[in-house]
């Protein structure tokens, strides 16, 4: 990947950290792992930490200003809308500032845009402002037309962000092409989160150059260290 946007290439580690949802969604994660994630996120200056909903509420006593994100209908999206809505509502009650929901990817592949929109709208109703709703479309599993359709459904349903990937799908994670297409589709009306397989500074900066306004990273420290090292990391 290459960084084509000069503004993205000029981001320093502190500036790039403010794009980051510092993420731990492994099924084997423990409470101790999550506490370490929060401490590391505070030290790195990230925007938020993203954890599984069962870990909420988080102890943020040592991390003032750190936002909390969680997931909903994760990772398959094959949950009834009312179940997703209940999960999202509980997460917000437990202190989540942002909820990243997974659409029914099969419905998107089938072109059932009414169904996709209704699913997102149900979760939106359970996550009222100021909480943010991000919509994971699993872009690697969709063709370009379906990526566009999913973004339009998210916008129509009142979401705040579209997001590339769970990071768990065998089709893969974020790509520069998908991020650029998503950013062009929403035209600045929604944020764009790139997530899944972003492991280097070059990857992260390329996503920002393509239009990402948020990054989901698990290896945040290594990415930021690569930005600090500069070209040739």
Question: Would you mind describing this structure in some detail?
Answer:
The chain has 233 residues and is of the alpha/beta class. It has one domain (6-229): TIM Barrel. The protein has helices at residues 6-9, 13-17, 31-44, 81-93, 105-109, 113-126, 144-156, 176-186, 201-210, 220-229; strands at 20-24, 48-51, 67-72, 98-102, 132-136, 161-163, 191-195, 214-217. Strands 1-2-3-4-5-6-7-8 form an eight-stranded parallel beta barrel, surrounded by six helices. Helix 8 (176-186) links the parallel strand 6 (161-163) and strand 7 (191-195). Helix 4 (81-93) packs parallel to helix 6 (113-126) and helix 7 packs across helix 8. The protein starts with 5 loop residues before the first helix and ends with a helix. The model has no long low-confidence stretch (mean pLDDT 95).
């Amino acid at each position: 990947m290459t960084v084509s946007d000069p503004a993205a290439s000029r981001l320093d580690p502190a500036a790039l950290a403010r794009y980051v949802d510092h993420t731990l969604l492994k099924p084997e994660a423990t409470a101790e792992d999550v506490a370490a994630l929060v401490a590391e996120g505070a030290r790195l200056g990230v925007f938020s930490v993203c954890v599984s909903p069962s870990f909420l509420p988080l102890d943020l006593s040592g991390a003032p200003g750190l936002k909390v994100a969680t997931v909903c209908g994760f990772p398959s999206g094959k949950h009834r809308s009312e179940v997703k809505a209940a999960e999202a509502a509980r997460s917000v009650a437990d202190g989540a500032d942002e909820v990243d929901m997974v659409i029914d990817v099969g419905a998107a592949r089938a072109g059932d845009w009414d169904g996709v929109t209704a699913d997102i709208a149900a979760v939106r109703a359970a996550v009222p402002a100021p909480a943010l709703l991000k919509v994971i479309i699993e872009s690697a599993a969709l063709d370009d037309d379906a990526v566009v359709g999913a973004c339009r459904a998210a916008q129509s349903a009142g979401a705040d962000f579209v997001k590339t990937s769970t990071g768990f799908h065998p089709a893969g994670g974020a790509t520069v092409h998908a991020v650029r297409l998503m950013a062009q589709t929403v035209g600045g009306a929604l944020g764009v989160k790139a997530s899944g397989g972003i492991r280097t500074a070059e990857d992260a900066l390329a996503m920002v150059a393509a239009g990402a306004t948020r990054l989901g990273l698990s290896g945040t420290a290594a990415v930021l260290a690569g930005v600090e090292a500069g070209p040739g990391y």
